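User: Hey, my collaborator sent me this sequence without any context and asked if I could get a structure. I don't really work with proteins. Can you help?
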Amino acid sequence: MTRQGRHIPFERLCNFRDLGGYAAGGGRSVRWGRLYRSDSLAKLAGEDWERFLGLGIGTIVDLRHPWEIEARGRVPDDASFTYHNLSIEHRPYDQPSLGPEIEVGPYLAERYLEVADDGVAELRETLEVIAAADRPVVFHCASGKDRTGLLAALVLVLVGVSEADAVEDFALTELATGRLLADWRAAHGDREPRWPGYGRAPAEVMRLFLAALARRHGSIRGYAENALGVDEALIESLRERLLTPPVAGMPASASGSGAGAAT
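Assistant: No problem. I've predicted the 3D structure and written it out in C-alpha cell form, which is a compact way to encode the shape of the chain:
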C-alpha cells in the first residue's frame, strides 16, 4: 500500500494515519504499523474495507459518544478484531455552529482540558487496552482530529516522544481539512459551517493544551500518574508494545522521557 506521508489512502476515510517512526529516546522509535489514528471507521465499505482488513488490526477503540454511534454507525463487525467504545468526551459541543469570533487555538485547547478532566476513566482504560494489545491498534472519533488528537499526543509523550513531535503529529490533520469540510458540506446541503475553524488543527491548539496540562500537573506524565492513575508498569508496557527494541550500546532513556513539562 502506498503511503502519502503518514496518511494511508482510503476512498472514504480522509485522516487515517500511522503513528510510527517518531523518535522516543535511547535509539528507540515508535514502530510502524503498530498504532493508527483515524476519522470514523463507520465510513468503511467496499475496497476500503478490504484495505483496512489488510492492515491486520486486532483492536479498535471508538472514542465517540454512544449517541454518535447510534446516529452514524460504527465499524462493521468482524472476527479479526475486538471493538471498544470508550467515550472520553463528556461535554459535547457543536463546532460548525460556533461564531466566527471564536479563536481556534484557545477555544479547542480549553475543550481538550475538559476532556482531560472529565474522561479520566476512559482515557486510563484506553491506555490499558493499547498496552495489552498483541496486534495493531487503531483509535478514532468522528473526524480523527480532537478526541483522537488528544489521545495520540498523550500516548506519544508517555512513551518518550517529544512534545514537539506530538504537536507536529496533531497538526498533520490540516492535510485532511479540505476533505473534512467537503464531507460536512455534502451532509448539509452544500451549506458552509458558521465557524471558520471547523476542520482545522493548527499546532497552536496542541501546544496550548499540553502547556496548560503541564502547568496543572507539573508534566504530562504527572497528569497521567496523578489524574489517570497510570503507573510505571503501564507506561513500560506501552513502551514495550509500541517501540522498537533498544539499540545495543545506547543508554536507555527513562520511561516516558518525553513527558516533561511543556515549554
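In plain terms: DSSP finds ten helices and five strands in the chain. You can pass these C-alpha cells on to your collaborator as they are.
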